[in-house]
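Justification of resources, computational component.

The compute hours requested in this renewal are based largely on the per-chain cost of generating structure records like the one below. Each record pairs the submitted sequence with a full C-alpha cell output. That output is archived, and it is also reused by downstream analysis tasks.
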Amino acid sequence: MPQEYKRKTNRGSNPDFLQRAAADVQGGSSIRSAAKDHGVDCSTLKRYMEKQRDDPEGVSGYQNCKIKNLIFPPEMETELAQHIKDLAASYNGLSKEKCCSLTYEYAMRNRVEVPDNWQTTQKAGQSFWLGFKKRHNLAIRSPEATSLARATAFNRHTVGKFYDNLASVMDQHKFQAQDIYNLDETGCTTVQKPGNVVAPKGVKQVGSVTSAERGELVTVVNTISAGGAVLPPLFLFPRVNYREHFIRGGPVGSIGGATRTGWINTETFVGYMDHFIHHTRCTPERKVLLILDNHEAHISLAAVDKAKANGVALLTIPPHTSHRLQPLDTAIYGPYKRAYARAMDAWMRSNPGKTVSIYDLPSLVNEVHVCACVPRNILSGFRSAGIYPFNRDIFTDADYAPANAPAENAPDADQAEKTGAPAADLENAPAAQDSDAPAAVPTENSDTTADAGSSGNPDGPTTSRASTSTYVSPRDIEPFPKAAPRKGRATNRKKGSTKILTDTPVRDEIAAANKAKENKKQAANTNARKSLFTKPQSRSKRKKLPSESSSSSESDMDMELSDTSDDSDVDDDQEDIIEGDFVIVKVHRKTRTMHYIARVDGFDADEYEGVFLRRVLSRNDDRATFVVDTEDEALWLQEDIAKKLPTPTVSGTSL
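The structure output for this chain reads:
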C-alpha cells in the first residue's frame, strides 16, 4: 500500500469550482448540469452537497480526510514538531528512533488513541513518521561535530564585543572593502580523504587507494580581502632547514618556511607579516585592517610592533567563534578541502605506484586556489560574517540558541558585565517546562477521554482525542539538557577575548605579559643551570674515593663529570665544537625548558646531530655518572646549545 495516495486527475481539486457548482444547484440547477458547466465530476458534487447538508460548517474534500485521520490534534502535533526543532537548534537534536519514542510517550501521557502497532513496538509507526516529516518540514540531517566550547562561546554578548571593536576601528580609519583582510591557517596532509566512487550494490566494503596510512602535515597560511582578492600563501614544512625547491609549482608569489612541527610559531608569523605588508602596500598613511584569531603565534610583541609601524591594524576574533566570524572558515575552507581531496585523487591516479610527498603539495594547492579562492566565495564569507558590508545583526536568535537560554531564563548582557563572564557561562539550560504551554488542548471531542491502553485500527490511524484535565507537553517528557555550572580549570592562562592589538593600551599589556614571561623563563634556565653544574654542599666535602674499574661485560660507556666543572672552566665559544664533544642542549617543552647532555656525532653549518646521555646511579657519591643512549638520536640547532662541556672522565674499559 502506498504511503500517500496520489490523485490520478485534477477534477474537483479546486474548492472554488465545487462551491460555484453547489451554489448553482441551490439556485435550482440539476447536479448533472452544474457539474458539467463547472468541470466537476457528478459524483464528487453529489457527495459534496450531502456533506454540506449534514455539516454546513465542516471542511469538505481531501483536507477533511487528512484532519480526521490524524493521530494527534493539529495543536498537539504542532507543539511536538516545534519542540523537536528547538532541540535541534540548541545542538541537542533527536534521532529518528528517539523522535518516534517521544511521540509514543507523548500520546500515552495525554491518553491519545494510537494504532495497535504503536503498542507493540512502543514507538510511532513508519507511516506516521513520513507524514509527520512532510507536514512540518522536517528532515534527517548529519550534524556537524561542535565542541562544547564553540557551542557556548558563540553568544550575543561575546559577538557584540567583536562588532563593537570592528565598528570602532572602521569608523576611525574609514576602511574600504579592499583594505579589510582575513588571515587563517589550514593543514594539508599527504593522505587525502577519498571521495565517493561507483561500486556494486550490496558490497560491504569499498576501498580507495591513498598515499599512506598516516601522512605528514604542511601548514598553509592564507589571506583574503573583502574586495575579493587573495594573497599568495605561506607554506610551513616540518623540517629544520628550508630550501627554495620546497614550494616548486606553488601559487605565483608564494613563500615557504620550516619549523620542526610544521606548525606556525611566533618567528614564522613575524616573517609572514613582511610578506603581507609587501603585497598589500600598506603604509602608516594608508592603513589596512587584518582580522585573525587568538592563536598564540599571532599575539606577540614583535608582530604587533611591526604591524603598527607599517599601518596594519590587528583585530582578533573571540576564542571559539571562528566557525561563524572568520570568512576563511565559513566560505573558503569547505570548498578548499573538497577541491584538495579531488586534486589528491587525480594525482594518485595519474601517478600509480607513487606516494605523495610534502614537496608535491604546493602544486596541488595551486590547483585548489583556482577552484576555491574565487571572488564569489570570498565576498560571501565576509558578508555571512557581517564584517563587510558591516551588519552586527546578521545572526538571529536561532544562531545563538546553543549558548542562550529561553527568553524567560536568558542572562542579559548587564548581568554578564557584572560577573565579568560571557553570557554563555551563566545558566545556559532552559527551564524544564514552558510557562506559556497550554494547560489543556481543546479537541473536537474534549468531553471524552480515551484509555491509555486502548488501541485503534492497526491498518490505519484512528480519531484523536486528548484529556483536558492533565496535559503533558513534549518539553516535560524530553526537557532541554541542563548542565551543571562549569568548573574553572586550575590554570594561570588568561582567557582570551576580542581585542584591537595595535591599540596602545593593548600593546602595552602584551609587552608587560611578554616581559613577565621572559623573566620567568630566565629564572627557570638559571635554576636548571644550577641543578646541572652546582653540587650539593654536603657532597663537595666528602672525601673522594678512587673509582672502581667496571666489569668487562659493561657495554655502555660511563662518564663522570668533573666536580670542578663551573662556568669559569667552560669555553663559551661554541664555534669550535667538533665531533665527539659533549654539550648541554636546551629542549623546549610546552611550559618549561629542559636541559640534556648530548654527544656531537656530526654537524652541518648550524645543525648538529648526535645522541643523548642518560643518568645512572653513580658509583661515587660526589660525581654524576652518565651513559650514552645509542637509540636516543636527535638533531638540534646551534642556538639550542647552552654550553660546551669539558672532556669527561671515562670509567670502565669497554667502549
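Residues 290 and 314 are 5 Å apart (CA to CA). Residues 405-468, 532-572 have pLDDT under 50 and may be disordered.
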